[in-house]
Design brief:
The complex is a heterodimer of chains A (87) and B (374).
Chain A lengths: L4 E11 L2 E8 L2 E6 L11 E5 L2 E6 L1 H14 L1 H6 L2 H5 L1
Antiparallel strand pairs in A: 1-2, 1-4, 2-3, 4-5
Chain B lengths: L9 H14 L4 E7 H10 L1 H4 L4 E8 L1 H4 L2 H11 L4 E5 L13 H6 L3 E4 L3 H10 L4 E8 L4 H14 L4 E8 L1 H10 L7 E5 H7 L4 H8 L3 E4 L3 H17 L4 E3 L11 H10 E8 L3 E10 L8 H4 L15 H5 L23 H4 L4 H7 L9 H5 L3
Parallel strand pairs in B: 1-2, 1-7, 3-4, 3-5, 5-6, 7-8, 8-9
Antiparallel strand pairs in B: 6-11, 10-11
The chains are: A alpha+beta (87), B alpha/beta (374).
């Protein structure tokens, strides 16, 4: 839960009165709230934690971190389904 | 050097290690505050690559571990009520309360759901207007702004069946408490990078000056951690004690102003009990009175909860850096990730889980074991 993962903004839309984005984390796609980084644009990267973009990140740093997290299995830990894991 | 090959960039790692080795003239004890950093350190064997005398002490920075037993028991009591949908991050499911955990509540018929984001819990509330939806709001300064936004949105949109059980904690008072302990051996800190992404660095200069301790904001990747260690050691050897940012790609001095403003609106600072440590003054957040309608503690009567810590668990000493996980008698025998006595073994960021999963038990772990901790 502590982990914050870099992701790339694919699409931005207003939803339920909040600025939301579709964000790609190395193939895993999630809805992310942009209220704390409202000027983030499509194509840019940000550090995302529990569905919120918290800080902008440059592309090179983001790609390196994503590759490392994927290799270490941390993306599965962050996005995996704990009920599935339990079975 | 057997773990060095596993670094993403072994040459850079070697250079940083050479620098550290060249700088060290006497023993130093550093604390990494964040559980995420603890995992990187143990996973990559960074503690074993460091020159003799440079010791890493694992800090209290795992929100799952430090959530007090009383709050876990309140969560379990609320989750077991008919008509309640209890939403939580996955990490909390196996954290033991006095006599059960959220997995058990679910198997006994409770509607416990894992969400990725607090906004998912808010959506569940809108989809189930005849049910009470309660979200378990724990975490440090990184998690608090998302949770604050969910409460703010609930009020703004008039979602009355949504409430939050809040047990947020703050890092700077924890650093203060660690330094104030008579048994403290810590001489320098690697501060948690993502906490600072939100909060910035303004809370640290006073702490660094008062305790005469260097504080270096540090990221989570192996090279980030080596760089953080290098900068702390360099300060210690020079007799300096300043705040330094070794994670500038994600940390600005002002943090995230929008997130900080939301924190100030939704929460108020309060004394908070830390599991295994005790109460630390002004170390947490609770919902401010304006948001009382969405406070699960106010909405549900959970004041008379009897709690009982397992006597064999020494999590508190582990969290304060007074005991290494494998120095506990229950470690790996009565206490494993599948059957944990305390929160430091159950959480994926807990120091005991890190020691268990990454070789410090003396037996190789399997991928199944490694993935069973959520």
């Amino acid at each position: 839960m502590c982990l914050a993962v870099p992701g790339r903004v694919v699409e931005i839309a207003e939803r339920d009165g909040a600025r939301m984005a579709v964000v790609d984390f190395s193939g895993v796609v999630k809805d992310v709230c942009l209220e704390y980084l409202p000027d983030l644009k499509v194509g840019e990267y940000a550090i995302v934690h529990v569905g919120f973009a918290l800080q902008r990140l440059d592309e090179e740093s983001a790609r390196k971190t994503l590759a490392l997290f994927e290799e270490l299995g941390l993306l599965q830990e962050e996005f995996g389904d704990p009920w599935e894991v339990e079975r | 050097m057997k773990y060095l090959a596993e670094f993403q960039n072994p040459e850079l790692a070697r250079g940083l290690l050479d620098d550290i080795r060249a700088a060290v003239t006497r023993p130093w004890a550093l604390m990494e505050v964040c559980g995420g950093q603890t995992h990187t350190i143990i996973r990559q064997g960074i503690d074993q690559l460091l020159p003799d005398g440079v010791e890493l002490i694992h800090g209290p920075g795992c929100p799952v571990c430090v959530t007090p037993l009383e709050v876990i028991d309140k969560a379990l009591a609320i989750a077991a009520r008919p008509g309640v949908i209890f939403c939580s991050f996955g990490d909390m499911l196996r954290v033991p309360g006095t006599d059960r955990d959220l997995f058990r509540v679910r198997s006994e018929g409770g509607d416990v759901r894992v969400v990725y984001s607090p906004l998912d819990a808010l959506r569940i509330a809108t989809e189930n207007p005849d049910r009470e939806v309660v979200f378990f709001g724990i975490g440090f300064e990184t998690t608090a702004p998302p949770n604050a936004m969910a409460v703010h949105q609930a009020r703004k949109r008039g979602i009355r069946n949504f409430s939050m059980l809040v047990s947020h904690v703050r890092v700077p008072p924890a650093i203060d408490a660690v330094m104030g302990s008579p048994d403290c051996r810590v001489q320098g800190f690697l501060a948690a990078g993502h906490v600072c992404s939100v909060m910035g660095t303004s809370e640290y200069p006073e702490l660094a000056a008062r305790h005469r301790v260097p504080i270096v904001v540090t990221g989570f990747e192996p090279l980030d951690i080596l760089e953080g260690i290098r900068r702390v050691v360099r300060q210690l050897e020079r007799g300096e004690h300043t705040v330094d940012n070794a994670y500038p790609r994600a940390v600005r001095p002002e943090g995230n102003p929008a997130a900080r403003a939301m924190l100030a609106d939704v929460f108020e600072v309060t004394d908070r009990a830390w599991r295994g440590i005790g109460t630390i003054p002004l170390s947490g957040w609770r919902l401010s009175p304006r948001y009382r309608e969405h406070d699960a503690e106010h909405r549900f009567d959970v004041v008379d909860i009897a709690t009982r810590e397992p006597a064999a668990c020494r999590s508190g000493e582990v969290l304060q850096g007074l005991l290494k996980p494998n120095q506990c008698e229950a470690f790996g025998t009565d206490c494993t990730p599948r059957s944990p006595l305390g929160a430091t073994m159950v959480s994926s960021e807990g120091a005991c889980a890190a020691y268990y999963l990454y070789r410090r038990l003396g037996t190789p772990t399997t991928p199944l074991e490694a993935s069973s901790v959520v």
